[in-house]
Every structure is written in C-alpha cells, then in structure tokens.
Amino acid sequence: MYIYLLFVHIISAITAMAAVICYPLIMSSARTTGQAKFALALLEKTAILPKLGGTLLLLTGLALGFLETSLFKELWYLLSIVIFLVILVIFAGLIPAGIKQQLTLLQKTQGDNLPDAYRQSRRRSAWLEVIANLAAFIVILLMVFKP
After folding, report:
1. Residue 89 domain boundaries
2. Number of folded domains in the chain?
3. Which of 12, 17, 27, 137 is placed for a possible disulfide with 57 were both Cys, Cβ 3.0 to 4.6 Å?
4. Is 16 exposed, middle or buried (0-12, 13-18, 19+ CB in 10 A)?
5. Confidence at residue 80, expressed as pLDDT on a 0 to 100 scale
C-alpha cells in the first residue's frame, strides 16, 4: 500500500508544482491589456491543478505518515507539512483572489496600456508566487534529502 500511496503522492506533486512554477512564466509575458486578460483567464482555468494536486499531495503525505508513524517524529516531515500548508493557502486562496481583482481592473480598462492599479496588484501576486515557489523548493529539498 505504501508504494502506491507514494506513487500518487509523486504524481500529485508533479501536477501541483508544474502549475505553480508556470504561473510567473505565463504572467511575465503579458505586455498589453489583451495579453493580460488572456493570461489571467488561462490561470483561472488551470487554477484547479494546484488545488486538486495540492490537496491530494497533502492527503497522501499524511497517509504515508500514518502508515509510517515514525515520520511524525521527523522534523523534515513536520516542516514539510507546515510549509506546504502555507503554499496551499497562497495558491488556493490568495492568488485566485488576486486574479479576480486583476481581471476586474482590466475589464474597466480602455485601450492596450496596462493600468497602474493592475501593475500593483500583479506585483503583489508576483511576490506571492515567488514566496510559494521558494517554499516549494524548500519542501522538495526536505523530502529528497531528509535532513
């Protein structure tokens, strides 16, 4: 059972993390209002991937811990769960709220120039994405090297 859970855990990580890593890449390419609207609509459609993959990742990680109870005594395991919860809050709650706000700002915009209010909101989202990606990198390091 452990090996099957580990397999689902790894597939969930790939699903969640691939989407997370792509967010800044997609958004950094938007230079006009039309491009930003398209990029945000794309992110809105792919937002299910970090939510679904992340939830499944957390559940399988906890299930692995219940199968191997000694993991709950390991600092790397506990830190991974705490850091991952931060990532989940960012990508399941904060970033989707930012996407909705940015889309609303762009809907009110006439022309192709990106408004300053959008740029400020986008900067906030970009910082959240950087924090989440850095946290994901730390979690991966913790899981691979198990210090």
Report:
1. 2-145
2. 1
3. 12
4. buried
5. 93
Distance of CA 8 to the CA centre of its chain: 18
CB under 8 Å to 120, separation ≥6 — which residues? none
Helices (H), 68-94: 75-89
Separation of alpha carbons 69 and 129, rounded Å: 33
Tell me how long the chain is. Answer: 147
Q: Is 82 helix (H, G, I), strand (E, B) or coil?
A: helix
The DSSP 8-state label assigned to residue 47 in this structure reads: T
- C-alpha to C-alpha distance for 30 and 105, rounded to whole angstroms: 15
Average predicted confidence (pLDDT) for the chain: 90
Distance CA 86, CA 17 (A): 14
